[in-house]
């Protein structure tokens, strides 16, 4: 793998937006481990301090990792200074508001993408741009949906539902979020077509993401639904009787592969991992935690029928990590629980804090 031709040389600077997030932190870590420098954007420097104090401390101490404060990612010139000297961009940050009002959320989310794209156009050093989309931008994760997702497939249901007349009930928050991701990715490809930038553009479309948490906050959001099932709370699975689940390390790997690989351009990379449901996870938990009392299998579980072409992302995994296929679901579940259980004493019961009977898993699992 050391002889692979690369878009940018080792030591080049890559900007990772939303670097404190579950996915952003893993992308930064993976790039740093491969010899690149990383500039991570944050909205709150104090809340981001854990990165330079623990996980990325060695890189920060040697000047290979640095923060850049971006208080408003949707501001017109938000990234103009941050982008200077950058060779590649992983745009992971997104507006995670569950505000159901589409007139507030959708324009701001689109602006968050166009702002950094316009900044990149002014910086001749930029060679590649990779955007973190979402499976929710492509289609609904719903039983009975048999969509075959392509580069041109979008979640029209969410868009239409979000734009329905007011009142904007709180329950429409996730549909509005999905619609905002639809609009943002469409804006990305419109920009690529109309502006013909000097850098390559690709999008990564992950499903529900689990795996190793690098910070206790990640345990409370992304992947918390694994812990709640371990505790016997089925709220998540009552809402979603079937999902695709992918390991965060696979998502990070596809991002850095898309950045580095000169053969990847104008690609929409579907990173979905494994079809699964609560009963699949319970089987894994019974095997790995035989002394823990788990609930019985759930009767309402099913399997998703949506599909896509995964050949390109799987080929990239093999090419850039020498990994055959997605990381095993069992490994992802066990790693997720390991770090979740390990961190429990730091912040109390996740089940009580994140998944009450009135809350929804959807408020958490898309926080990239």
Automatic annotation (TrEMBL):
GO terms for molecular function: oxidoreductase activity, acting on the CH-OH group of donors, NAD or NADP as acceptor. Gene3D superfamilies: NAD(P)-binding Rossmann-like Domain (3.40.50.720). Keywords: Oxidoreductase. The keyword Transport does not apply. Residues 14-263 form the NAD-dependent epimerase/dehydratase domain. The keyword Oxidoreductase applies. Belongs to the NAD(P)-dependent epimerase/dehydratase family. Dihydroflavonol-4-reductase subfamily. This is NAD-dependent epimerase/dehydratase domain-containing protein. It comes from Hypocrea atroviridis (strain ATCC 20476 / IMI 206040).
């Amino acid at each position: 793998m050391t002889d692979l031709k690369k878009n940018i040389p080792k030591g080049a600077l890559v900007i990772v937006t939303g670097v404190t997030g579950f996915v952003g932190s893993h992308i930064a870590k993976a790039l740093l481990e491969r010899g690149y420098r990383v500039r991570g954007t944050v909205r709150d420097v104090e809340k981001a301090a854990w990165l330079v104090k623990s996980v990325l401390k060695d890189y920060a101490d040697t000047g290979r990792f640095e923060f850049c404060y971006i208080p408003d990612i949707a501001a017109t010139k938000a990234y103009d200074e941050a982008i200077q000297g950058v060779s590649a961009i992983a745009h992971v940050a997104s507006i995670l508001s569950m505000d159901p009002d589409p007139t507030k959320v959708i324009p701001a989310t689109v602006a968050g993408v166009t702002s950094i794209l316009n900044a990149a156009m002014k910086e001749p050093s930029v060679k590649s741009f990779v955007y973190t989309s979402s499976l929710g931008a492509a289609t609904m994760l719903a039983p009975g949906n048999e969509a075959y997702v392509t580069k041109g497939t979008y979640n029209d249901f969410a868009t239409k539902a979000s734009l329905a007349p007011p009142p904007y009930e709180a329950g429409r928050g996730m549909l509005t979020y999905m619609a905002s991701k639809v609009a943002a990715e469409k804006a990305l490809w419109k920009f690529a077509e109309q502006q013909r930038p000097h850098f390559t553009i690709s999008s990564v479309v992950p499903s529900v993401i689990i795996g190793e948490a690098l910070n206790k906050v990640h345990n409370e959001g992304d992947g918390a639904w694994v812990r709640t099932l371990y505790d016997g709370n089925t709220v998540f699975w009552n809402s979603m009787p079937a999902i695709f689940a992918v390991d965060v390390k696979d998502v990070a790997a596809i991002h850095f592969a898309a950045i580095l690989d000169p053969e990847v351009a104008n690609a929409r990379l579907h990173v979905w991992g494994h079809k699964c449901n609560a009963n699949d996870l319970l089987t894994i938990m019974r095997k790995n935690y035989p002394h823990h009392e788990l609930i019985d299998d759930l009767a309402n579980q099913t399997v998703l029928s949506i599909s896509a072409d995964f050949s390109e992302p799987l080929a990239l995994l093999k090419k850039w990590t020498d990994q055959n296929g997605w990381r095993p679901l069992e490994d992802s579940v066990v790693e997720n629980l390991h770090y979740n259980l390990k961190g429990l004493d730091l912040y109390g019961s996740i089940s009580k804090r994140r998944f009450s009977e009135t809350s929804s898993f959807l408020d958490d699992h898309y926080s990239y």
